[in-house]
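Key result, reporting period 2: structure in, sequence out.
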């Protein structure tokens, strides 16, 4: 397969030593980076500004899509051909669930710490490689992985990417710490992605990727998708749409309990838009399965969702965002959810964010062990983030 050919050769050779080191050292590193070490590292990052490659003076947000999150670190030139970046996040969540028996139960998630390292290799002017390593710890379990690793090339109006990559099926815009419910469509896979710039404002592309889901008689194969995007000269307006041949391939792992064996493929579409003006950003996005999953019950076999957010930047170091989202036939998910998020960047490269979300659920959609319906939930999520 295309992804196997690349990922198991060039990409994994470059990443293997780094992953091994992360597995051995990440718990120790994570422990030492808590508490006052966060502030010390924040000061160190600010002092390193002369070596930073990317632009400064950005709004308070660090990222607004999962892909931006994976590229959130500030790139430091180590050599002419290698740049390194890092992102550290400490996150905690508390949730109260209200059931039909008039009982409320509180869940306090373990604080999770995520360390991400990005390596960017410039091979030639038109050819580069990127590796993103990630380590996570919640104080009990530690996990590290190669999040992405790919080669990319540009030849005139054509762009090529091959390796492990986030597929261009949706953008999943969000200014919140908590990702939108429609992230069930996000897909990372070994893939070949080809883009063509039709005009300066319009990009058209397609991709093929290794399949993890298949029929009993043919467990593996290739799936595919396509996307188109329009963006204005200043990127203040972005409109896009995309198609995925099988939603079961997404990171949601819809068919995990069926051992990733399907009765039929379930394609899906995604559409999104972003408009920025003055100190505001408005984003709208929707994702929907085109046909039903034959394996699921009729009230949850064709998942769909939309998300609308408005972000306001009163200053360059403060952000306030509002969200309203809706899902349908997405198992165990809220039917409606809305909330507010605030982000403050007290110093360069360091931010503090707090989310509040209130959700409501369909009747008889989520039940506890005693058969009581989950009616509402209220959650608060806090995050400390530092990029260097």
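The corresponding designed sequence is given below.
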């Amino acid at each position: 397969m295309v992804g196997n050919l690349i990922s198991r050769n060039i990409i994994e050779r470059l990443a293997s030593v780094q992953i091994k080191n992360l597995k051995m050292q990440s718990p120790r590193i994570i422990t030492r980076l808590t508490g006052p070490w966060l502030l010390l590292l924040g000061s160190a990052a600010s002092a390193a500004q002369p070596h930073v490659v990317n632009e400064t003076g950005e709004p308070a947000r660090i990222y607004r899509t999962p892909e931006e999150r994976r590229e959130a670190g500030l790139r430091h030139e180590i050599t002419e051909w290698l740049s390194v970046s890092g992102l550290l996040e400490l996150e905690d969540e508390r949730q109260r669930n209200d059931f039909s028996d008039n009982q409320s139960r509180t869940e306090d998630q373990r604080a999770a710490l995520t360390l991400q390292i990005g390596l960017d290799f410039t091979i030639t002017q038109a050819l580069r490689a990127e590796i993103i390593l990630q380590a996570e710890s919640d104080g009990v379990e530690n996990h590290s992985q190669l999040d992405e690793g790919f080669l990319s090339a540009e030849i005139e109006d054509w762009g090529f990417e091959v390796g492990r990559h986030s597929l261009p099926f949706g953008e999943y815009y969000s200014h919140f710490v908590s990702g939108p419910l429609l992230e069930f469509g996000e897909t990372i896979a070994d893939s070949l992605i080809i883009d063509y710039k039709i005009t300066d404002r319009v990009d058209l592309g397609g991709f093929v990727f290794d399949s993890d889901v298949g029929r009993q008689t043919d467990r593996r194969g290739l799936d595919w998708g396509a996307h188109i995007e329009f963006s204005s000269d200043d990127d203040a307006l972005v409109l896009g749409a995309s198609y995925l041949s099988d939603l079961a391939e997404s990171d949601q792992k819809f068919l995990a309990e069926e051992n990733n064996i399907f009765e039929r493929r379930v394609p899906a579409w995604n559409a999104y838009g972003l408009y920025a003006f003055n100190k505001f950003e408005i984003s709208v996005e929707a994702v929907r399965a085109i046909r039903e999953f034959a394996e699921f019950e009729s009230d949850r076999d064709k998942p769909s969702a939309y998300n609308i957010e408005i972000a306001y930047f009163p200053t360059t170091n403060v952000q306030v965002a509002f969200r309203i989202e809706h899902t349908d036939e997405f198992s165990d998910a809220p039917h409606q959810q809305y909330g507010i998020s605030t982000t403050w960047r007290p110093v360069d490269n360091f931010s503090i964010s707090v989310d509040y979300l209130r959700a409501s659920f369909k009747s008889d959609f989520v039940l506890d062990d005693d058969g009581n319906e989950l009616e509402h939930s209220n959650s608060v999520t806090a995050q400390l983030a530092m990029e260097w």
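Residues 2-32 form the longest helix (31 residues). The chain has one domain: 2-89+116-304. This case is discussed further under Risks and Mitigation.
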